[in-house]
């Protein structure tokens, strides 16, 4: 098939798929009989939709509805306007409810919004809220949504997910820029050529019609907008409670109120927490679990041992243990939608570290390509991960609307070329070889992160003579240092917030909130900007494909490493435990226990 014909077919499929998701039809890939998992935080931020167990109508519920699982880290931030990580998203998804929720099949369905209307031009959504209440007894209102969303787009609150509003909602970007200018005019003008136009809060396309009606006006038609409203940053916040809690909001389980399927209780920091069924949840009859016990376990071998002892219902299988469990009937693997990659710090102005010469070198595309091409991705996937993960030779993973298949591999591992590129790149950058002998490598504190670090260290030492100074820190500390520019090279991961390549591609626009390496390319920026407003599906797809080629093939802004897969064990009595590839991972709303003591 010719490329142009394939693109046209792909574009049609994209439009149909998104449209189906918007009206509740269609499905994503689903598996049964225990096929589901959730990795530790350094492994992934999103999964494809899979589920465990069978049909509740064919099973008898156990008298005790208690599930015991693990998480790889403490949730760093439970203020939904500021949350950015997979663990916090998963917690918020369990205890909160947005306008929509992603259902068992991976599609958005009504949650706090009983239904909604869409204007003929596709730019105005009117959400009609159902009768629902917070755990303190107050009603959930349209203002709860407006208050939360306006906080996210007010620059004073420094929400890294402000873009997921400003890119879509009318005048949200203007309001963000105006509040940023008011907050610090001098700093704003350092990065901009002119004073922004004043945009008031009432100019933003978020309108409270009455307590039960919320109107949202978009910049352009966005068929997947109802999927966005299921994302945690779009969750409501009760303004009165937030004001009373002040700086303590979201820091303890009693510093939140809840409107979702469960209540967060017994939160012991760095140890674990408990979800208890919320009797006031609008759809409480659907929720069968009375309790979900969550333990924070960073070492997968420890989790596996607890599973074997009968103390966990779900456990990861570390790579070295895979041969021992492959024949276990409760063992399964599946490929998710997350990509893990290496970020190069190219921003000398934001650098916090001992050797600016390293950053000067990493600002050169040939040096970045040298490091990337020196890596043995297949060996890393086979030896270190050993769970079906795929070596990554592009940025957008397989499974996102056929994008990876259409754009193909953008490079290949090539140690010999890496050596030549390093020599040329260092000369161009004006950096002496002796000043580029050691690179600080920032990564998580899990066992899998350590093994990946050691493998990469040997790759770079044997091929390029570069030593990695491995710095393992907690998940929260890794996020903090990445945002501050306190690294040379860092292992980062991203999973989709919605089912479209743009959720990956817009990470690296100049000054983007997740562009930790400080990459900047005007041609790339223009392609992404134009793709966001392009109504022709084929043209839009081509723009994103061209942008990815600039990002990876030309600039190697980051070094793709692997598209993650999972190896796990799950008890057969755990039914309908769902894992999604978009947004929060585990979904407990439909889970139940059947046959545990048989």
Structure description:
With 598 residues, this protein is α+β, with helices and mostly antiparallel strands. Among the domains are: 74-244, Dipeptide-binding Protein, domain 1, CATH 3.90.76.10; 334-565, Dipeptide-binding Protein, Domain 3 (Dipeptide-binding Protein, domain 3, Roll). Helices cover 33% and strands 19% of the residues. Strands 12, 13, 14, 15, 16, 17 and 18 form a seven-stranded mixed sheet that branches. Strands 2-11-10-9 form a four-stranded mixed sheet, covered by helices on one side. The protein is globular, with a radius of gyration of 24 Å.
CATH architecture of the domain at 334-565: Roll
Tell me the number of helical segments per DSSP (H or I, 4 or more residues long): 20
Structural class, by secondary structure, is alpha+beta
Strand content: 15-25%
Q: Terminal Cα separation, in Å?
A: 54 Å
Largest sheet: 7 strands, mixed
Determine and state the CATH class of the domain at 334-565. Answer: Alpha Beta
What's the total count of β strands? 22
- Overall helicity: 25-40%
Brief characterization of the structure:
Helix content is 33%, strand content 19%. The chain contains 20 helices and 22 strands.
List the helices and strands and how they pair.
Layout: H1 3-23, E1 50-51, E2 66-71, H2 86-95, E3 100-102, E4 108-110, E5 113-118, E6 124-129, H3 142-152, H4 163-166, H5 172-183, H6 185-191, E7 206-210, E8 213-217, H7 225-228, H8 239-245, E9 262-268, E10 272-277, E11 291-296, H9 300-308, E12 314-316, H10 322-325, E13 331-344, H11 356-362, H12 365-373, H13 377-385, E14 390-391, H14 403-407, H15 415-429, E15 438-443, H16 447-464, E16 467-472, H17 475-484, E17 489-494, H18 502-505, H19 522-533, H20 537-554, E18 558-570, E19 574-575, E20 578-579, E21 586-587, E22 592-593
Helix pairs in contact: 1-20, 5-6, 12-15, 19-20
């Amino acid at each position: 098939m010719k490329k142009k014909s394939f693109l046209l077919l792909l574009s049609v499929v994209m439009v149909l798929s998104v449209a189906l998701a918007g009206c509740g039809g269609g499905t994503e890939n689903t598996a049964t009989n225990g096929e589901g998992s959730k990795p530790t935080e350094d492994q992934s931020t999103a999964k494809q939709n899979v589920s465990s167990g069978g049909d509740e109508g064919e099973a008898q519920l156990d008298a005790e509805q208690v599930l015991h699982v693990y998480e790889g880290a403490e949730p760093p931030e439970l203020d939904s306007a500021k949350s950015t990580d997979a663990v916090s998203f998963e917690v918020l998804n369990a205890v909160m409810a947005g306008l929509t929720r992603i259902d068992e099949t991976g599609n958005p369905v009504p949650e706090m919004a009983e239904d909604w209307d869409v204007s003929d031009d596709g730019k105005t959504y009117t959400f009609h809220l159902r009768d629902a209440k917070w755990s303190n007894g107050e009603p959930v209102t349209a203002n709860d949504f407006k208050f939360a969303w306006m906080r996210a787009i007010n620059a004073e609150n420094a929400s890294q997910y402000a873009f997921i509003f400003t890119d879509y909602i009318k005048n949200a970007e203007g309001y963000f820029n105006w509040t940023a200018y008011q907050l610090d005019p001098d700093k704003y003008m350092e990065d901009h050529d002119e004073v922004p136009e004043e945009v008031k809060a009432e100019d933003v396309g978020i309108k409270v019609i009455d307590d039960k009606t919320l109107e949202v006006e978009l910049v352009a038609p966005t068929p997947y907008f109802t999927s966005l409203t299921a994302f945690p940053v779009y969750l409501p916040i009760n303004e009165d409670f937030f004001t009373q809690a002040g700086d303590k909001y979201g820091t303890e389980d009693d510093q939140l109120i809840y409107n979702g399927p469960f209540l967060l209780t017994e939160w012991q920091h760095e140890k674990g927490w408990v979800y208890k069924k919320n009797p006031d949840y609008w759809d409480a009859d659907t929720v069968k679990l009375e309790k979900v016990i969550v333990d924070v376990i960073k070492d997968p071998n420890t989790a596996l041992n607890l599973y074997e002892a009968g103390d966990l219902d779900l456990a990861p299988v570390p790579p070295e243990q895979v041969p021992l469990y492959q024949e276990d009937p409760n063992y399964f693997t599946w490929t998710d939608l997350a990509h893990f990659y290496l970020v190069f710090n190219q921003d000398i102005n934001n650098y916090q570290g001992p050797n600016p010469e390293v950053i000067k070198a990493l600002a050169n595309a040939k040096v970045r390509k040298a490091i990337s091409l020196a890596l043995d991705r297949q060996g890393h996937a086979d030896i270190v991960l050993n769970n079906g993960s795929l070596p990554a030779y592009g940025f957008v993973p397989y499974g996102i609307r056929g994008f990876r298949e259409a754009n193909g591999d953008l490079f290949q591992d090539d140690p010999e070329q890496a050596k030549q590129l390093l020599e040329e790149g260092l000369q161009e950058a004006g950096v002496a070889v002796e000043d580029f002998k050691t690179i600080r490598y920032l990564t998580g504190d899990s066992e899998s992160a350590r093994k990946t670090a050691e493998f990469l260290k040997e790759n770079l030492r044997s091929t390029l003579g570069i030593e990695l100074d491995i710095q393992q820190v907690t998940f929260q500390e890794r996020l903090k240092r990445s945002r501050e520019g306190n690294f040379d090279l860092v292992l980062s991961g991203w999973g989709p917030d919605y089912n479209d390549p743009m959720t990956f591609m817009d990470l690296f626009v100049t000054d983007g909130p997740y562009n930790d390496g400080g990459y900047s390319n005007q041609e790339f920026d223009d392609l992404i900007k134009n793709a966001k407003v392009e109504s022709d599906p084929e043209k839009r797809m081509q723009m994103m494909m061209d942008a990815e080629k600039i990002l990876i093939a030309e600039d190697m802004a980051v070094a793709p490493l692997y598209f993650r897969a999972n190896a796990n064990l799950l008890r057969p009595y755990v039914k309908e435990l769902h894992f999604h590839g978009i947004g929060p991972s585990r979904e407990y709303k439909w889970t139940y226990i059947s046959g545990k003591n048989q």
